[in-house]
């Protein structure tokens, strides 16, 4: 009983640090600066899309034979980033790893923003994007149905399913904290806002029991989706006869690479938020240590995928070997060696615990991985297409200004909703953190 006041005090601290954060935001100037930059990127995105819709996809650098350019590169890259949030939250929830509680909420928000960015790319490169809903098998009088052999249809179902489940999982997890923010809010505006989105949560025993059941079931659904979404994308590559793509290692290689880049971006966001907001007591050096370990583990598995690709080419010979030689020494060798150097050389520092616990070093390594994984996507797409089986169809690829502007503008699509989330919603799960504190006190 003597421990109860101390435990109550810890609950209050958690409430002040998490739930009160949107009610009395402590970093308004910094937030407005970031939000202004994000709005500028969003404006650039709108301009790029208007130019694209006015002139068609010819404004991009896509050519024959490289008719898959930045749209597919960035689609795969953004979707990869979106994997870590659900993986951290759902998998660690099922395996009962409590250290997730300080990371899962904003990692899930990152997933939603990244998946939206990814999902926009296939729509934008359709040519007539205003007919994107034709990909869905909706009832219509023309009896026109989707082409189920088309990769676009696979993308539609995979990305939409992943987005819906991730959104539901995120919203379900945040419900108790929304109700807590409603009860602590002093202004009428915040009371109404949080009262509406908390859906009448009162914290009854029946509410908690049903919430836990629904949360666990959704997590169990989300985990296989993490694997299936990127496996589906990899099959789009592996099912074709293109040298450099036709490999059975692609599904696990893509999934692990996606988790690798996703953990790196979660590390970047965690360190940035830890520096900007008073969260150091909740996002501790131990959490950075665990993130560093996860990045290192998935990075070494991705390195095995690189090795396996080389082995496959040596074993297959012919055009596969020629493609490997071209990746190592050809026109786009910078993308291959850039991926190898940025992904794996700085990563080796994470074998040491003191480096994993250094926010600045972990931030630099994570940033290196994020850039390196983009180079890897560029290498995979372009080096296999620009020199295929026919010498007569060889051709180089160079992204246009509008390719780059759309990519930069996607930063606005990612950052604007994420910064709104940081400003107006609890960025860490207060209810689960309190539960963790209670278990620690019970265990002594």
Can you give a write-up of this model?
This protein is mostly helical and 444 residues long. 73% of the residues lie in helices and 0% in strands. It has helices at 3-23, 28-55, 70-81, 83-94, 104-124, 151-184, 188-197, 205-238, 250-276, 285-316, 318-329, 333-344, 353-356, 359-385, 401-424, 430-443. The longest helix is centred in the middle third of the chain and has 34 residues, at 151-184. The chain is globular. The relative contact order is 0.17. The mean pLDDT is 86.
The low-confidence runs, each spanning 5 or more residues with pLDDT under 50, are none
The mean pLDDT is 86
**Distance N to C terminus:** 13 Å
Biggest sheet, in brief?
Answer: none
- What is the percent of helical residues? over 70%
Beta-strand content: under 5%
How many strand elements? 0
Tell me the overall shape. globular
By secondary-structure content and strand pairing, the structural class works out as mainly alpha
N-to-C series of helices and strands: HHHHHHHHHHHHHHHH
Number of helices: 16
The whole-angstrom Rg is 23 Å
Question: Topology, pairings included?
Answer:
Layout: H1 3-23, H2 28-55, H3 70-81, H4 83-94, H5 104-124, H6 151-184, H7 188-197, H8 205-238, H9 250-276, H10 285-316, H11 318-329, H12 333-344, H13 353-356, H14 359-385, H15 401-424, H16 430-443
Helix pairs in contact: 1-6, 1-16, 2-15, 3-5, 3-9, 3-14, 4-5, 4-8, 4-9, 5-6, 5-15, 6-7, 6-8, 8-9, 9-10, 9-14, 10-11, 11-12, 12-14
